[in-house]
């Protein structure tokens, strides 16, 4: 055997030895279901949603679910247990220091990738379908977008990687609603429906509309303005001129929830003042009448596409 052949054979043996060692190391890293879960969670923690989608088993080009809104500091596989049908349940801890989530992922061998290195995949993509909504409005916000439902109290689904941190917040400035933050641990988590109350801005807007109504009513120079929540009855005197009305103070407004989603009951009150020249039917004397008259209103406020609509009951 020539020296050249011996050298060539030695190089080939060395390369084969290195390849086998590298392959063995790669098998140790890549063949376990725990490693697949770790890579998925690491991609989620790095906000690499394309990689997370690939590890999750989503089709290429499919819309990406919501990623993690927080800053995860915990990514740890706890246990792996064999299940029926050659499946493995991997328990992992993921999240931030204040809100870690323990999740069980179910994996199976990936029959699409046959070869020397065993591959694993999630039995079902770890993507949650979260129903979100508001009890008194048709819109809420999730990270990056506004979600519109079919109406107040209804929900619409948003997709999020499990267990990404997702916040659901109020999208209507005329309402106040505490935000909700969840880390879904299953593909079908419980609905997240915000409990909304009238905001200070809504009260101010309703007060503005009530004030406008009262001021319009005050333009009527009669004792009983038509369609208005105030008036004056004079039985013993005769009005000599047209009475004048004036609003004395700002309306006081109280809004309350009702059984009808997106509608609030209205109670409002204010003080109006009437001024008129009256003549006594008893002795004919003429006096100037100046009197405060209460204006009491009941109604309903509905949130429409152009803002709140105030209806005052006659």
Please provide a brief summary of the model.
By secondary structure, the chain is α+β, with helices and mostly antiparallel strands. It has helices at 3-30, 33-45, 49-56, 200-217, and strands spanning 74-82, 88-95, 101-109, 120-122, 127-134, 139-142, 145-148, 156-161, 166-170, 175-176, 180-182, 192-194, 197-198, 237-239, 244-247, 252-257, 263-280, 286-304, 307-312. Strand 17 and strand 18 form a beta hairpin.
Structure characterization notes:
- This protein is an alpha+beta fold.
- 21% of the residues lie in helices and 39% in strands.
- It contains 4 helices and 19 strands.
- The chain has helices at residues 3-30, 33-45, 49-56, 200-217; strands at 74-82, 88-95, 101-109, 120-122, 127-134, 139-142, 145-148, 156-161, 166-170, 175-176, 180-182, 192-194, 197-198, 237-239, 244-247, 252-257, 263-280, 286-304, 307-312.
- The strands form 5 sheets. Strands 14, 15, 16, 17, 18 and 19 form a 6-stranded antiparallel beta sheet that branches.
- Strand 17 (263-280) and strand 18 (286-304) form a beta hairpin.
- Helix 2 packs antiparallel against helix 3.
- The chain is rod-shaped and about 115 Å long.
């Amino acid at each position: 055997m020539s020296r050249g052949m011996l050298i060539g054979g030695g190089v080939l043996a060395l390369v084969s030895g290195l390849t086998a060692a590298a392959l063995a190391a790669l098998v140790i890293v890549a063949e376990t279901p725990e490693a697949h879960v770790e890579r998925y969670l690491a991609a989620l923690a790095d906000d690499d949603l394309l990689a997370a989608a690939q590890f999750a088993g989503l089709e290429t080009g499919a819309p990406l679910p919501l990623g993690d809104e927080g800053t995860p500091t915990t990514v740890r596989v706890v246990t792996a247990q064999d299940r029926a049908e050659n499946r493995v349940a991997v328990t992992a801890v993921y999240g931030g220091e204040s809100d870690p989530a323990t999740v069980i992922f179910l994996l199976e061998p990936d029959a699409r990738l046959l070869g020397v290195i065993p591959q694993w995949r999630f039995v079902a993509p770890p993507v949650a379908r979260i129903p979100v909504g508001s009890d008194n409005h048709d819109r809420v916000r999730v990270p990056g977008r506004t979600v519109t439902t079919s109406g107040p109290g209804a929900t619409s689904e948003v997709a999020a990687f499990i267990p990404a941190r997702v916040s659901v917040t109020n999208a209507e400035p005329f309402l106040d609603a505490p935000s909700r933050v969840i880390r879904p641990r299953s593909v079908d988590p419980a609905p997240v429906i915000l409990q909304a109350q009238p905001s200070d801005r809504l009260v101010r807007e309703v007060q503005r509309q009530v004030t406008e109504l009262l001021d319009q009513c005050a333009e009527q120079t009669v004792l009983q303005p038509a369609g208005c929540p105030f008036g004056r009855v004079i039985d013993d005197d005769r009005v000599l001129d047209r009475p004048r009305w004036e609003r004395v103070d700002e309306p006081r407004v109280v809004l309350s929830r009702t059984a009808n989603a997106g509608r609030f009951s209205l109670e409002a009150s204010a003080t109006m003042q009437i001024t008129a020249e009256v003549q006594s039917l008893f002795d004919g004397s003429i006096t100037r009448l100046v009197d405060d008259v209460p204006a009491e209103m009941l109604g309903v406020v509905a949130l429409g596409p152009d803002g709140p609509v105030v209806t005052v009951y006659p």
